[in-house]
Amino acid sequence: MELAFSILLVITSLLLILLVLMHKGKGGGLSDMFGGGVSSSLGGSSVAERNLDRLTVALGLLWAAAIVALGLLRAG
């Protein structure tokens, strides 16, 4: 059982890295201070971005649950 949660943790970790890298930058960095963020979209986030956000949050919750489950298995 511990092996299954360890594999789940590795897979969700890699997928989380991929999903976070797919997100569009929100700005506020050093380049925005010098005019790099002039081309910001005023229409808000698209459906694809909202779905990506939801998927990232769901995967993050699964990742956290795998960590808690591993901790409980190793403590007991």
Structure description:
The protein has helices at 2-22, 30-33, 47-75. With 76 residues, the chain is mainly α. It has a domain at 1-22 and 46-76. Helix 1 packs antiparallel against helix 3 (47-75). The model has no long low-confidence stretch (mean pLDDT 84).
Helix percentage range: over 70%
User: What is the tally of helical segments?
Assistant: 3
**In one word, what is the shape?**
elongated
Structural class of the secondary structure composition?
mainly alpha
Tell me, rounded to a whole number, the average pLDDT.
84
Largest sheet: none
Order of helices and strands: HHH
Task: Describe this protein with a few key phrases.
single chain; 76 residues; 3 helices; protein transport; transmembrane helix
Give the helices and strands, then pairings.
Elements: H1 2-22, H2 30-33, H3 47-75
Short account of what is shown:
With 76 residues, this protein is mainly α. It has helices spanning 2-22, 30-33, 47-75.
